[in-house]
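Data deposition worksheet. Section B asks for the primary sequence of the deposited chain exactly as it was used as input, without tags or linkers unless they were present during the calculation. Section C holds the resulting structure in token form. Section D is free text for depositor observations; keep each observation to a single sentence. Incomplete worksheets are returned to the depositor.
Section A, Depositor: J.P.
Section B:
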Amino acid sequence: MIRRGWDAIARWRDARMGEEGDLWHRALVDPTFLRVVGPVRGRRILDLGCGNGYLTRRWARAGARSVVGVDASRASIALARGREKARPSGARFLRCDSTRLTGIPDGSVDLVASNMALMDLEDAAGSIREVARVLSPTGRFVFSICHPCFDLDDRSMWVVERQLYREQVWRKVSNYREERSVEVPWKISESDWGYTLTYHRTLATWVRYLRAAGLVVVRMEEPAPLPEVVRKSPQGRFLLEIPLHLVVEAVPLRLAGAARATGPQLRARGSRTSGRTSRAAARRSGSRGRMRGTGSARRGPTTGS
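Section C:
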């Protein structure tokens, strides 16, 4: 049986993700993603592409002022609401297009978080513009995606070569500059397969999308696997050398500009202060002195954990 679209595989995905995420999320992507997100107490959060909402509920329980999960998949939102009803956290869930966040006022969100969803959106540029609209003037946008440089659908693969006792791991990539959409296969069972669309865009394109929306990148991280992934995933030890995911933090351009304007002054004051302290300390002390295979990650392994 063949199923197409996120609605068609929503129940299977929900069972895999549960309340902590599957292996790929909880022990590879999420630790870095959550570290960049940081403390959420008192924050107004929008979870863009929330899926079954396990992170939405986590942030609600962590003391966020408000948390709204949005997703275009009707089935995913229904499952998220069902989990929320069974164990209330205070999170809300809305079904809407990411390019039209109906019901979310301008400048009303402190943090927009999107975990492994943007690369699956056809109009990612429009979605990022909408993110910029709802962000407060001091808001932050944190998102994770498949690494544009190393995880290009079926045009990237692992290559492992052995010479005597030495093993060399390579990530083989072709046609990086060609931006396109492809279907990602998900093995649901021995007889069932699901397919969803994903979109490869170059790293420069992602930066252009952000800049056009008035956002600027202030931080980038490349998640490394925790020991559980290294033990349990066939790709685990390769991920120790080459990342397949990217976590990005972006802020409004005007906020970044203000930080740049004050930064040099603060550094100059700090340098003068530290210099005086060092000289005083010096006076007091008297010192003078070949196996190949595809490894597209998408939202995790498409067959099992």
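Section D:
Residues 26 and 163 are 35 Å apart (CA to CA).
Confidence is low (pLDDT under 50) at residues 266-298.
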